[in-house]
From TrEMBL:
GO terms for biological process: isoprenoid biosynthetic process. The keyword Acetylation does not apply. One of its GO terms (molecular function) is metal ion binding. Keywords: Magnesium, Metal-binding, Transferase. It holds the Pfam family polyprenyl_synt. Its cofactor is Mg(2+). The keyword Metal-binding applies. Belongs to the FPP/GGPP synthase family. This is Geranylgeranyl diphosphate synthase type I. Coiled coil: none annotated. It comes from Paramicrobacterium agarici. It comes from the Bacteria.
């Protein structure tokens, strides 16, 4: 079975090598431009690396081979996914006006503080947002560069094309999913309760489930030349597991410990996220409670008492328990897809371990 810690070391080495080369280019433009690579290096030095791990696990499931060093094509593909994820988080934090990410200032807040501390002309917040948008765009381009380098090293041109197509599809789907997320925050009141839950499911599927697990897993398997049957089994495992992963995120966004998650407790409530959890709550509470929930949700000035009030409402409605049951059901669907999957037992064991890792977590 692939050694997760060894893989993470390879991924970090590949990212460091790539950022070293891009820092040289930025320095030729201007010393100030290296701020982009400096923040990127800091931002990419942590995280759970789930996308890279699933990508590698997909490769291992169809080839039976693990990466042996940082130059392996599958390590490069995993590193590309990590940079793409970083770009998505930078942009997501701007959209959500998030102050922190992984316990540190988010990109736009960091640039905002730089402007404010230097007492430059203009508006600090505007500068922060503008600089962070450019950083996110740069990271998107860098993810393409890393993936191109990785796929060029494959001996199978058809496998490389299939993997590239998977990445393109993932990029389009997650962007559309992000758009639907912000749309629902504004348009939710025009839909029935049942429609709100269904639309929240769609957001969860395309903003997170497919992009976090199914696509990285399939990309790795496609790069490894996996058969139609192998890819099908991995997708049947990856999609429900991705849904369970996002539903766990929804619970952590409301009930998570800020010292563990790196984000303020109840952040999703302040941002007004119309998640499946919220949809289930609204269908289970009284009309008066529903009106109170709708009034509180999306208010960036929510107090700790307000957060506690909403948390209590969600728990007492039974929505939290129902979502936990749903997570268990989705994990069962995922693991059942592996029962007759055309891959070796070691690969199946690795996938089972990852299923636990992404759904039984507190951050």
């Amino acid at each position: 079975m692939p050694d997760p810690q060894r893989l993470l070391t390879f991924i970090q080495n590949r990212l460091d090598e790539f950022l070293d080369a891009r820092t040289t280019i930025l320095a030729r433009v201007a010393h100030e431009a290296t701020e982009f690579s400096g923040f990127s290096r800091e931002f990419l030095s942590g995280g759970k690396r789930f996308r890279a791990r699933f990508c590698h696990q997909g490769w291992f499931a169809v080839t039976g081979e693990s990466a042996t060093d940082a130059s392996s094509p599958i390590v490069g593909a995993g590193a590309a996914l990590e940079i793409f994820h970083a770009a998505a988080l930078v942009h997501d934090d701007i959209i959500d006006n998030s102050d922190t990410r992984r316990g540190r200032p988010s990109a736009h807040r960091r640039f905002e503080a730089q402007h404010r501390d230097a007492a430059w002309a203009g508006d600090s917040a505007e500068y922060g947002r503008s600089a962070a948008i450019l950083l996110g765009d740069l990271l998107l381009g860098w993810s393409d560069e890393l993936l191109d380098d990785a796929l060029a090293a494959l001996h199978d041109a058809e496998a490389a094309r299939s993997a590239r197509d998977e990445f393109r599809r993932m990029r389009t789907e997650v962007t559309a999913g992000q758009f639907l997320d912000i749309l629902e925050e504004q348009s939710w009141s025009t839909h029935s309760d049942a429609e709100q839950i269904q639309r929240a499911e769609t957001v969860a599927t395309f903003k997170s489930a497919k992009y976090s697990i199914e696509a990285p897993l399939s990309l790795g398997a496609l790069a490894g030349g996996g058969s139609h049957e192998q890819i099908g089994a991995l997708r049947a495992y990856g999609l429900p597991l991705g849904i369970a992963y996002q539903l766990r995120d929804d619970l952590l966004g409301v009930f998570g410990n800020s010292t563990v998650t790196g984000k303020p407790s109840g952040d999703d409530l302040r941002e007004g996220k119309r998640t499946v959890l919220i949809g289930l709550t609204r269908t289970a509470v009284s009309t008066q409670q529903r009106a109170e929930l709708d009034r509180l949700l999306g208010n960036p000035e929510l107090t700790d008492a307000d957060i506690e009030r909403v948390q209590t409402m969600i728990r007492e409605s039974g929505a939290e328990a129902r979502l936990e049951e749903r997570i268990s059901d989705e994990v069962s669907k995922a693991t059942s897809a592996l029962e007759d999957a055309p891959m070796n037992a070691t690969a199946v064991d690795g996938l089972m371990a990852l299923a636990d890792a992404v759904t039984q977590r507190d951050a």
